[in-house]
Amino acid sequence: MRNLNISRFAGFISLAFACNNVTKTDNKAVKTSETDTTKIVKANAYSIDAVSTTQEEKATDTELNYADSIDFEKYEVGPQKRIENAPIDWSSYPEAKDFKTRITEAYKTNDVNFAGHYITSVFGCGASCLMGFMVDVRDGKIYDLPLGEENSCLFAEDRALYNWMSRIFIAGVCKQNIEDKKVYYKAYLWNEDKKDFEKVEASEFVKK
After folding, report:
1. Are residue 108 and residue 155 in the same domain, yes or no?
2. Sequence-separated (6 or more) residues with CB below 8 Å from residue 70
3. Are 25 and 73 contained in the same domain?
4. Residues 110, 28 share a domain
5. What is the C-alpha to C-alpha distance for residues 178 and 42, in angstroms, rounded to an integer?
6. Contact of 157 with 174, CB cutoff 8 Å
7. How confident is the model at residue 104 (pLDDT cuts 50, 70, 90)?
8. Residue 173 and residue 95 in one domain
9. Mean per-residue pLDDT for 160-168?
10. I want to staple 134 with a disulfide (CB 3.0 to 4.6 A). Which of 100, 118, 130, 179 is the partner?
């Protein structure tokens, strides 16, 4: 009987140790996955922000990549000469100082990733909501990205699709309800002369 109890106790210790190892391994796996995702986002031509993307959404992205259906090349800015980043001009957008840490960190660590001259900073602002800014590396001026609540959607298939060489910015790929197979886009085109985003219809940029 004593031997049986000892055996049971030893088994309990082994099980607890094994569970502890699994937990550590799982935590390590999650960290590795997050790191790998960051690397993929930075390496990919398309900036599909991982800030608000859940693991379930990432699996969906693998099955159906909406970036592939967007004609980024139609609005290509062409080859750009790489220059040293100008200091951020906070006077160009004083309100952006509320997000100074996020903007500064992105500006220091990211390469140009939108419209040939801009570095973006995109982050969450609540459930199903993203917001962000972009900084012109030529003069450090700050501009709003067309995100926020007005460009969020309840059933979002994807959000914040853009890349370094194109002026088109897809704020959201949305559905009217979760069962829908059709999607609609909240999309904008950056007007370099006016320094402003203008709405653009899906018929102008979705590949046939």
Report:
1. yes
2. 161, 168, 170, 205, 206, 207
3. no
4. no
5. 30
6. yes
7. very high
8. yes
9. 96
10. 118
What would the two tokens of residue 118 be? 């801009």
C-alpha to C-alpha distance for 89 and 141, rounded to whole angstroms: 5
Helix (H, G, I), strand (E, B) or coil at 186: strand
Enclosing domain of residue 93: 45-204
Determine the pLDDT at residue 34: 31
Is the per-residue pLDDT at 47 higher than 80? no
How many Å apart are CA 113 and CA 158, to the nearest integer? 18
- Quick one: 166 and 142 in the same domain? yes
pLDDT of the residue at 64: 65
One domain, residues 33 and 60: no
Does one domain contain both 62 and 37? no
Phi-psi group of 122: left, alpha or beta (phi > 0 → left; psi -120 to 50 → alpha; rest → beta): beta
- Number of domains, the chain: 2
Same domain, 2 and 98: no
Strands (E), 29-148: 118-124, 130-136, 142-144
Percent with pLDDT over 70 in the chain: 69
The alpha carbon torsion through 40, 42, 46, 52 (nearest 10 deg) reads 80
**Residues 65, 67, 198, 119, CA torsion sign:** positive
Write the pLDDT tens digit of every residue in 88-100: 999 999 999 999 9
